[in-house]
């Protein structure tokens, strides 16, 4: 019974870590990755559509992206969406493909990005801790329903070990992303 609660909490914690991983992937670190464009949506025939569903996105060089739309008529709308996004990159088009050149990061921008990823990591840790707190509360409630005290204690200890594992994973992701951003 307690195992079900703990395994459900572990699944939720995995999802929280995945959210942090996706947030980190969408941050620009001076290196081009197709994940930079994950948040860009294009108005395609009046429907907001993710860019990666309208075009092939490739990385020909470490600091450039090439977007090859499957429907050439969508190119102006794709360019407009990229300009409107918070990427701060101006697209260049030659009629068949759109090229994005990722500018070199300034030291000021690097320190700003490090602050952002630390904040995202802390949000992830807080989400994991909130799950732990909720589970511990429900485990304590089970004790009132007649579950033995030693089982409750064991359940809380297991929950703490799982929490520590996921927080450590977030910290490791933060450390590697920080190194990636600060690398010149």
TrEMBL record:
Q: Does the keyword rRNA processing apply?
A: no
According to its UniProt entry, one GO biological process term is:
translational termination
Q: Name one GO molecular function term.
A: ribosomal large subunit binding
Where does it live in the cell? Cytoplasm
Write out the entry's keywords from A to Z.
Cytoplasm, Protein biosynthesis
Domain of life assignment: Bacteria
Q: What CDD domains does the record tag this protein with? A: RRF
Per the database record, which ranges form the Ribosome recycling factor domain?
21-182
Q: Which family does it belong to?
A: Belongs to the RRF family.
Q: Name the chain's protein.
A: Ribosome-recycling factor
Which species does this protein come from? Answer: Desulforamulus aquiferis
């Amino acid at each position: 019974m307690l195992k079900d609660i703990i395994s459900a909490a572990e699944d939720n914690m995995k999802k929280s870590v995945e959210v942090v991983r996706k947030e980190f992937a969408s941050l620009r670190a001076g290196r081009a990755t197709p994940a930079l464009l994950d948040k860009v949506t294009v108005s395609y025939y009046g429907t907001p559509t993710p860019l990666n569903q309208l075009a092939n996105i490739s990385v020909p060089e470490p600091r450039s992206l090439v977007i090859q739309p499957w429907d050439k008529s969508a190119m102006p709308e794709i360019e407009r969406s990229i300009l409107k996004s918070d990427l701060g990159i101006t697209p260049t088009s030659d009629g068949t493909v759109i090229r994005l050149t990722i500018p070199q990061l300034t030291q000021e921008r690097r320190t700003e990005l490090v602050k952002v990823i630390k904040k995202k990591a802390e949000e992830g840790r807080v989400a994991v801790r909130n799950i732990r707190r909720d589970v511990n509360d429900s485990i304590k409630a089970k004790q009132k329903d007649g579950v033995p005290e030693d089982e409750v204690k064991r359940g809380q200890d297991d929950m703490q070990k799982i929490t520590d594992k996921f927080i450590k994973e977030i910290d490791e992701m933060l450390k590697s992303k920080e190194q990636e951003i600060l690398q010149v």
